[in-house]
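Please fill in the sequence for the structure shown.

STRUCTURE ENCODING:
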């Protein structure tokens, strides 16, 4: 098999890769030039043909999303979702700190395709350094005439604003992001109306993820056929994967969506295998919200289809956290339940109460005072919250329940044994902070 040639990360490690000069010297801003010579509908069609599926978690096709915008609209707004708050996920951060002009080029292409007048890059508040990098790149693009009025000498005009986020996980949910951008508390909105019809400031709005938009310059430059030649039909194009935990080379990698979880952990050009002779016990392969795999399930492909075959919610952010044999699964349950209990925005009763009940029950189990029936209580609570049963405004509780349910189902004998032993669990650092 021919070695995969990085596309999205091709400028990583190149000196001064964040500057316009270096980006252009390496072929940047060619895709947008091609796009601006076409009609917006032709660009939408090209992106549909490429089957570019959203990289923000749900995998919704970008071109299809754009075509939901009302035909008779007079104003359109584009939001770039750079909130990236899903634990073990840092591919958007890497894209912004190594190649901000790739994101700006992708944003202009999406802006043109959707006929947006304004784009907002909503950046996770903790991304201090990345904020300055992206802001500087935006200023450079304005100075070169690539943003503002009649860009690249065309009739199209676009302004980009970089907006720092509000510091909550739920602000990454697209309507929470929109509320936050409007200066309000980041509370997700009831849908419909969907953002395409009534979004930011009541206007038709598109929200796309950083990685999704970073694919666009390459699709426009090399064509939809090139894009679909990478990976399986349902999961076309290059993809970023993160791996963290006790592997030799934790980090962010790029490849086709033919890579399995085992490849990501073991291959020398990826995770490089487990560190210090440790053995894998469990992997949360899609960020933490998609659910858990046992050691027997590592052949799962990191694509948009296979995770469902393993009882997971989806591919999510394709950021895997590896948990080794020494970790007490009670502590994993508690750690995860704490995250969602803290991050629920509190609007919906099932989510607000359900996530905090789950945290209380998981804490009782972790403290050594749990009962076997607590596991069923957790499962029952999980079944009664979330968007899928129709009990909540947003998908946060679905993400909260999948890891809890899959861990209980796949690690029940271990959990029961430790509950029966009635000893408190040992705290383990679950998430490895990466540079
Ligand atoms: C609780 C929650 C948090 C989310 N956080 C993010 C995020 O940080 N970044 C992101 O791109 N999408 C996030 N999403 C998904 C967005 O709602 C939306 O689907 C995505 O930005 C669309 O972009 P895409 O179509 O390009 O993937 C989140 C969803 C939920 C329910
Ligand atoms: S589901 Fe949870 S996070 Fe989402 S809006 Fe309701 S309370 Fe807030």
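FILLED IN BY: designer on duty
SEQUENCE:
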């Amino acid at each position: 098999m021919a070695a995969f040639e990085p596309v999205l990360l091709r400028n990583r490690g190149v000196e001064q890769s964040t500057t316009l000069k270096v980006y252009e010297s390496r072929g940047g801003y060619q895709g947008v030039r091609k796009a601006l010579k076409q009609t917006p509908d032709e660009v939408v069609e090209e992106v549909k043909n490429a089957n570019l599926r959203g990289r923000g978690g749900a995998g919704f096709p970008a071109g299809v999303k754009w075509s939901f915008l009302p035909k008779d609209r007079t104003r359109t707004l584009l939001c770039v979702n750079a909130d990236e708050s899903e634990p073990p996920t840092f591919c958007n951060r890497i894209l912004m700190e190594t190649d901000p002009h790739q994101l700006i080029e992708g944003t202009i292409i999406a802006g043109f395709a959707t006929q947006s007048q304004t784009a907002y890059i909503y950046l996770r508040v903790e991304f201090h350094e990345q904020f300055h990098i992206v802001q500087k790149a935006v200023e450079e693009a304005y100075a070169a005439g690539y943003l503002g009025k009649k860009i690249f000498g065309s009739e199209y005009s676009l302004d980009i604003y970089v907006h720092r986020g509000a510091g909550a996980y739920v602000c990454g949910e697209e309507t929470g992001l929109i509320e936050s951008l409007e200066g309000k508390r980041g509370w997700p909105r009831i849908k419909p109306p969907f953002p395409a019809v009534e979004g930011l400031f009541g206007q038709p709005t598109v929200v796309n993820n950083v990685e999704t938009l970073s694919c666009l310059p390459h699709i426009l430059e090399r064509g939809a056929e090139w894009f679909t030649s990478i990976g399986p039909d349902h999961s076309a194009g290059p993809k970023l994967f993160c791996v963290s935990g006790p592997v030799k080379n934790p980090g962010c990698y790029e490849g086709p969506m033919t890579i399995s979880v085992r490849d990501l952990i073991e291959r020398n050009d990826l995770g490089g295998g487990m560190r210090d002779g440790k053995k894998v016990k469990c992997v949360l392969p899609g960020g933490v919200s998609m659910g858990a795999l046992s050691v027997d399930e590592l052949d799962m492909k990191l694509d948009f289809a296979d995770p469902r075959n393993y009882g997971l919610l989806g591919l999510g952010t394709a950021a895997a956290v590896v948990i080794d044999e020494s970790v007490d699964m009670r502590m994993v349950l508690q750690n995860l339940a704490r995250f969602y209990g803290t991050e629920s925005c509190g609007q919906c009763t099932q989510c607000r109460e359900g996530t905090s009940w789950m945290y209380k029950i998981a804490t009782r189990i972790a403290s050594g005072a749990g009962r076997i029936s607590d596991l069923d209580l957790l499962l029952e609570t999980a079944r009664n919250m979330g968007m899928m049963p129709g009990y909540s405004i947003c998908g946060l509780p679905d993400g909260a329940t999948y890891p809890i349910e899959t861990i209980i189902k796949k690690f029940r004998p271990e959990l029961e044994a430790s509950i029966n032993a009635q000893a408190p669990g040992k705290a383990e650092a679950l998430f490895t902070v990466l540079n």
